[in-house]
């Protein structure tokens, strides 16, 4: 019976691939036709053809991206219908449905139906593909006399096969095996802030990514213009997850690590945790405001200014009054400066006029000439600039952090020690903790050239014009002999969609004021209050998916509770969901990590591990100074056990470079280090860099030092111990932290 079923499914799946191939061929032909038309004709013809070519290329790329494991499920419904569930929707030429997109409402039954709540499903079948070939099928029969435990795993075989597979250093999608508690979260409402709390390995990142794809599919209208932003903790993490959304057919999500949220700035990690904590506090809002106010100065005394040999007087009182009026406009610094300058120039011009007229009785001076003389006079320019200098955020924050007098003037709420911690040389690299300060400054300073704001209006205008051209494009393409298989409306929509998608992605890197339709934040527990403030500015609708584990916080600037982290920005208008099953770490390792955390006083939500592993944690106690030697000694054993899997050595402080160089001496280029090294099969990284990632095997060096070091957090060791999917080894000279050995 099963063999016959397998043969049937192979046949059906072959049909789906044949249809995919047909669609590809169609798109390739359309693309070739457009290209054959050549780059002749008017500028408009050429750019229209480019637009078409790009449209077809996009579609082709999407059809290519979903090739691997195109289909993964089948539902047999009470109605007698069989419904196949896959990465995209497919129909025949005459619109008979062949496969339903996993995000469509009816596909929800694939993830949600249980024996107790069948939702019209008689049988759920998992199709387990390798590439294009159906390797196995697995059935959940949901009819009443085969009642199963409601909480049981769905498609257990398919799930366990996915969990046991070797890690590649890049996350893959879980679309075929999403579990019902995850599916509920993925499909929950877009409005408001949704917090997804879950212990290590519960699929938070996977859920966040699938939710982004789901929201884009379900709310395409709303999100295609505004876009979705996905924020992660580090560039190595962004690299780790970069393939998931394309494999789900989505390329329109803007992905950025916290260090890349300010256009034009590539920030590094803040080296000192205490400094990050100070910069992350909300009292920095006042500090930055002070720094801006500090650039709106009143001279120490009245000034005499030389304009064409005449002496004009600029009094402190005049400057003070102009400053009050400029500030009362409520405009940002650079824009309010125009008011300030205008007032003072007018007053100085009046003085000048009086002086000139007094010197030439009976003649009226030409005010416009005099105004120009005053405006361009060197003395006037210098003093007005000194009083109210146009400012960039970079200059403002550089001065704030590098000039002791400025820092002291702007930070009355900080202690002397805190100030000395903040102080650094001008030209030091920007850090992740500086990004919200720069953003805050940009908000208060406004555009350097207020006219630049017109860029947005111009873009809107261009977009409307391009849309109007879409219909004309079709006519032109027809004239050129291109067989256009698309209606004018579709083309207009798709061009608009493409335009908007590109615009969203482009603007994310070039327009700080871009407002996203939704923001997904991963490892959200790490964010400081100032980082939250920046993110809320990027999505004024406050439509957020916030994913994290409060117990894994390692940043001192990060959060101890969701309530504490979210209250300043969201009040109590957020909803909490929890993930409770650990899909990554085998139970023996997960339990040791949870015992350690509890013994160290950390309250962890210790999710239940879905599987038992082959190995309990391996513990090596060695003499002082022998940790790295032992690492080199045991590595062959670890590599053999993993049989070609991915191994991480997680170490902190001096041990990190020591382990790297010792291993490089033996394994050469196989050793990766830090961000972007995940092509190698052995990486040496800090707990911070390991956050969010996973490996087949992990060796943790000196766990108790990781636990107790200055400014360290239990979270660091907890993160390190919960990274493996198979095997964990601890090498310690300083003792093994309580709880680990049971
Ligand atoms: N339903 C599922 N089917 C298959 N694999 C899954 C499923 N859910 C989670 N996983 C796998 O479990 C592992 C852990 O998932 P993920 O990294 O999303 O967890 P996390 O909660 O973000 O973990 P952490 O907080 O420790 O970084 C990944 O390999 C993911 O692919």
UniProtKB/TrEMBL annotation:
GO terms for molecular function: 3'-5' DNA helicase activity; ATP binding; DNA binding; hydrolase activity. SUPFAM superfamilies: P-loop containing nucleoside triphosphate hydrolases. This is AAA family ATPase. InterPro entries: DNA_helicase_UvrD/REP, P-loop_NTPase, UvrD-like_ATP-bd. ATP binds at residues 198-205. It comes from the Bacteria. Residues 177-586 form the UvrD-like helicase ATP-binding domain. Keywords: ATP-binding, Helicase, Hydrolase, Nucleotide-binding. One of its GO terms (biological process) is recombinational repair. One of its GO terms (cellular component) is cytosol.
